[in-house]
Amino acid sequence: VFRCHWDIACMLFSLYFATSILYRVAFVLEEDISSYRRWLLVDFSIDIFFIVDVYFRYTRFAFVYNGTVVINRNSIARHYRKNGMLLDVFSCLPLDVIVLLIPGLKDSVFLFRLVHLIRVRRLPSYLNHIEGYLNGWNIRVSAAMSLLSKTFFYYVLVNHLCACIWFLIHRYLERNIKYTWATTDCVEGGDDAGEGCLATWDDEMGQHNICNNGYVTNCYIRSIYFVITTISTVGYGDIAPVTEIETIWENIVVMIGACFFAAIIGAFTAYLSHNDTSGPNAFKLKIQGIKKYMKYREFPAELQEEILVYHQHKWKQSQTLDEQAVISILPLPLQLDLSFAVMGEVIKSVPILCECSSIVQKRIAHAMTLQVCPSGSNIYRVGDIGWDIYFVNSGLVKISLPSDLSELDFVGKANVPKARQKADSIGLLYRRGNHFGESCLISESGVRQETVTADTLAELYLLSKDDFEGIWSYMAPLDQEALKRNLLNRNGNAWHSFDDDEDCELISNNQRQTFRNASMIKANSRRRGVFGSFQREQVRLRSFSADASREAIEKRGTDFSSSHNPIDNNQSAALEIQRLVRTGELPVHAEHDIEESSSGLSESSSDTSTTNEEYEEIDKAVSKACRESTTSSAVNRTNSPNIYMYK
């Protein structure tokens, strides 16, 4: 921060020297020098500042070399000695102070201050430093705008310096010449070198009076007017060089003007080209093309509004037409850092994501995509297929639960109690920090279970299920489960359900556990007459028919616990299998297959515990019965998609 303020002060003081020193030498007359001497206190203070600056640059101020900040003092001193230290020291010489101590040279004090103009050579580097500081403060200045601004700045400064030199020629080099550009510039009319001219010739003294009546302001205006008309190649001819030295200086000014003319044209070309390719004009052209296409395709008015609102919001947010093209050229670590720098506030607004590690937050930020929804627009409807989870960054979003359950798939119907419990816990109006659509994380069908509408203009960020699974692969198993559990059971800082909530259990898991318990009861009863504990694991299985699933919902309370008598449990399991065979929900040989599986297990092992291999054998028998049940049943077959079951 100190270096930033110091460089800004150096730039301002250098600009002050560039405009004041030469002006005072050219336009401050001898009779006015005493009134300007009070400014010498300001000048001497700035001189002391630049002496301190030389010390800091030699001992303190670090520099960047090949992307590395060098802070070693010996390296700093060596670098400064090679980069203009002698000129800086020479520009700080107090020649003007010495002149003030000599009585006969006091009136020449401004002339001896010309040595300080050497310091002005660092003005371009100060401007570059200021541009870097602006970028560090997130004040974006395009390269084209920076080039155009610098060109105009130098153009105005050079005009000022050329005007001062133009008058210096008249004042010091042509004092004894009757006809100069000033003595022939007779705005008020009359003869050359007369009273109506800028300067008047005195025959007795053999000199002109520099400027009539001491109107130095008028002399400066006429000087700057001549330089501007010459540099801009207009050249009205009312002010013209008279002497040879004036002609030489005018030729120099013309050449300077030609260079500036080319520079200004190039700067304007770069600026306009930037606007046409990546600036506001490019965005306007893009919007015009989109409107033309939508009109040709006859898009609905609501859809047109959503598309335009998205592009306008995206442009306002990033000021670039293709943000991904800017990021894609970077290596992945820099892409992650850049994404988090842009999306960090979004991540911090979601409490669940804030609890993740920094690298996970960066990967989430890198995978997020923006969606802007106008007020009243539908984000998705119940029954739609979608694989994205939405995070609300701004605006309000309204959730509507379906009144007609026929719009839901089977899993959605099973989760109706959980959805209602969630609505009772956190409400139906979501805002910044909330998320929705998380059911896609445990869904195989992707069918949406609610309707979501933007209550106001909403800025949402999407993260797909595939992206989440990719991010999970970089996380420890416990962290994976914690993030998934939080997304499913929390919203913002509020919990709406818990892992031990029976409503979270999917229906086909109940049926599968029924068959599995039946086989295990028979096997363990034959071996030791004691019912062992069962390990529940994640399985994948086709869902049962709609009738069988509804039956399972009604009988979900059936549980074969270790506290039951093994004989009673065995009989209950056998009765359950027989009932399902009678209703046609299992093939007639299912009972025999499960009986064989359990018998084989009891005969092949004398161990009193159930091994993983035994579970696999039971799963094969149960899966076979379930597949044949699904194949043989024609009831709502199309409404029984594959689902994942978690418990």
Strand order of the largest sheet: 5-12-7-10
- Computed Rg: 43 Å
Number of extended strands: 16
Helix content: 55-70%
* Oligomeric composition of the shown chains: single chain
Distance between the termini: 56 Å
pLDDT average, as an integer?
A: 78
Shape descriptor: elongated
**Main sheet, how many strands, which sense, barrel?**
4 strands, antiparallel
Number of helices: 26
Identify low-pLDDT runs.
Answer: 500-512, 518-569, 600-610, 626-647
What percent strand?
A: 5-15%
What structural category characterises the helix and strand content? Answer: alpha+beta
What brief labels describe this structure?
disordered C terminus; 4-stranded antiparallel sheet; alpha+beta; 647 residues
Characterization of the model:
The chain has 647 residues and is of the alpha+beta class. It contains 26 helices and 16 strands. It has a 4-stranded antiparallel β-sheet. The chain is elongated, with a radius of gyration of 43 Å.
SSE topology sketch:
Elements: H1 2-27, H2 33-36, H3 39-59, E1 63-65, E2 68-70, H4 73-81, H5 85-91, H6 95-100, H7 109-112, H8 123-136, H9 143-173, E3 201-202, E4 207-208, H10 216-231, H11 244-277, H12 280-297, H13 301-318, H14 323-328, H15 332-348, H16 351-354, H17 358-367, E5 369-373, E6 378-380, E7 388-394, E8 397-400, H18 410-414, H19 416-426, E9 429-430, E10 435-436, E11 451-454, E12 458-464, H20 465-472, H21 477-489, E13 490-491, E14 494-495, H22 507-528, E15 539-542, H23 546-554, H24 566-582, H25 590-604, H26 612-632, E16 642-645
Antiparallel strand pairs: 1-2, 3-4, 5-12, 6-11, 7-10, 7-12, 8-9, 8-11, 13-14, 15-16
